[in-house]
Amino acid sequence: MAKVTVAEEWLNSCSGCEIATLNIGDVLVDLLVNNLEFVHIPVIMDHKYFGQTGEETEMNIPEAVVGIISGSVRNEEHVEVAKEMRKKCQILIALGTCATDGGIPALINMYDNDELNQFVYKDSPTTDPGEPPTKNIPPLLDKCYALDEVVDVDIYLPGCPPHPDWITAAVLALLEGKTEFAMPERSVCDTCPTIKQGKKGLPDIKRMLQSPVFDPDKPIDDMRCLLEQGFLCLGPVTRAGCGGKSGNPRCISTRMPCRGCYGPIRKGAKPIVDYMGALASNGFDPSTMPDRRGYLARFCGAHNMLKKLG
Q1: Which CATH superfamily is domain 4-106+135-175 in?
Q2: Does pTM surpass 0.85?
Q3: Residue 201 has pLDDT above 80, yes or no
């Protein structure tokens, strides 16, 4: 049986998704040896866009059955690479929350590029003031985009980073001849083992400088829901999956509230609106919450979720 060719690219990203892919471990080795052939993957393979010595005049990424892109789209080069990958790959996977929903980089959408350059190159206390570089720098787009705002995407694997279980499941599904794969549309709360008492009247919101109430000698399923304790856990509006196919939510397993890294539960959902409604229904005044937009859309600022106000 011929191997399935795979091309992988990273755009506005940190390489955490690539590390998550490597964390598949022995299963990945077996897949590579028997079933997969990477024809383009900059993180580990030296394959130039314009030929190995720059002899070509047009970007050339090899054709592949499966394309994987991590990272959001922030500049004109990212757009060019994304379109070339879409052109050359039969099935395109958006890997990680930066690609699926904008991720942390999309927090910049609350500001414009002039404000960005002013702070980074002139106002930052750790920077000697200077002019923004222009030579050999791809021009910035007007904002940070999710991958599907630029090209069509076939499969979404959110997460910061995605759990190796889901990457493995998607690849195995494709090897079985399936052209679709989707993670379950469930919230973190649906998989959370903590105790929900369901009492109305949310206490004052607490910062994580305080410790939640729990018995360290007892398992996580003996601890009361962190949101009910007054900590801003985003489990109600975040897609489940960070613990893999069968594990508990990762942050909550360490007695920390969910930070929302798997993005909205379903495409088109608006976590900011949904979460504000949940807080209000429990007696908390959302207007008293600092940085509401940045906190609640920390990982999903693309798709016009975050924009500059005024």
Answers
A1: NADH:ubiquinone oxidoreductase-like, 20kDa subunit (3.40.50.700)
A2: yes
A3: no
